[in-house]
């Protein structure tokens, strides 16, 4: 069967895998397979070995759910031990497309660890508040002396007072927030705020979500999860309020609890399959809010887990992203609440990703947060951090305020047909956001989150929400087409102008969407980093043979500008 169904490049890749596996090399290549119906791993192994005669392993991606869920049970992880993805004679997507066709799969996606969610790098000799990188998106100024400026910007203290005055639960009391991230490290700002009964480590397969503070250099941002958790739930005190704590950082929901879920080792090595497992764990544990200060490529498995969480009335939010310009996934998904970044002047943070996918924005520039770093033995340091990581964590705390104030059960009882808490919260959040003068609502959402206005608006009235497909659907194709249009426009000829069209069919956008997004982000990073890293700019990403053929076809509107922009050779 292999000789009848596999393409030439796929056969080359298979021969390479056979050779490296016989040599006993390290590494592993993972491909997430989505079958058309639930199958037991042994059945899929047998089918896969017919077309891929190498050493391989197959396991359910969502083992705790696989047997009882018609959608999540269709995702399996195919592992090829001893294979280094970057050393293949072709693209990992070449092999994925061949497997998809040979096994009649809904999707087959390489589980690539991507670096498209950029985070700060400490500069030699710089002060503690400054972090920067060669993408030129970090602000080199001291953090504001007011350590709760972010809460004041979002009118959080007023929201707390309003809940108390109304006799409601205040400060997110009783609400569980799940945070898929690097885990957490010991810090005084998180004392009493963490819920380890719902925590886990997806990477190691145990219940200890400790961040080991080891990463691939400072760009990995060890301690990332500690900082983001602190701005959501730290028990610190705000002057002139009745709430007092032991810390100096104050979260938006200091009476909520946060369940840390370790699913990434660093923010520059993000596997969306691991994030998907973290989202599903949060759902299984009964968490009420999921906040994701991370992002990368579109992923059928992550989208399926996200939609299942939304269906179960969990509020799901994600950061728009940093420095690369375009909104990353999962924030780019239609049913996910995407949060951009602002500063103390009510302007937008220079590093915030932006676009029509962004729903609202929140403080992201020099937000005071807890700090733990590699080799660090201090447990009480704080400083001003930058990134939409903080914007989404702050907003997740506001979601907890809303749930506590109105009562989650009462809100669910008031939902309309097909409506979920995600739909109600997003609508009210966007309607009550405050809009500064000259605000760009097309790129940064309806405005800056206003917690007081949100609570004062009331629980809202029943509405509706349309279903969204689990696999790459129309809304995703639109997002990818928009991204590709942005990529190709600089290369388009003058007569094409604003009317430039990507020129790929919906079926092609669905088949090649993940790879196209990967190429686009790789190209963007190489371009913006070129002045500081000429070697990175000189090595364009290599597309699959199949996609290169599509992009190079003669006569199509896509042929020249998009292929040139993506540096297809």
Structure in words:
There is one protein chain. The chain has helices at about 1-5, 10-20, 40-50, 90-100, 150-155, 155-165, 225-235, 270-285, 300-310, 390-405, 410-415, 420-430, 440-445, 450-455, 475-490, 505-530, 535, 545-550, 560-565; strands at about 30-35, 55-60, 75-80, 105-110, 175-180, 200, 255-260, 290, 315-320, 335-340, 360-365, 365-370, 380-385. It has about 575 residues and is an alpha/beta fold. The chain folds into 3 domains: about 1-110, no CATH class; about 150-455, Rossmann fold (3-Layer(aba) Sandwich); about 475-565, no CATH class. The strands form 3 sheets. The protein has a 7-stranded parallel beta sheet with strand order 6-7-5-8-9-10-11, sandwiched between helices. A 4-stranded antiparallel beta sheet has the order 2-3-1-4. A two-stranded antiparallel sheet has the order 12-13. Helix 7 runs parallel beside helix 10 (about 390-405), helix 8 (about 270-285) packs parallel to helix 9 and helix 15 (about 475-490) packs across helix 19. It is globular and about 70 Å long. The two termini are about 30 Å apart.
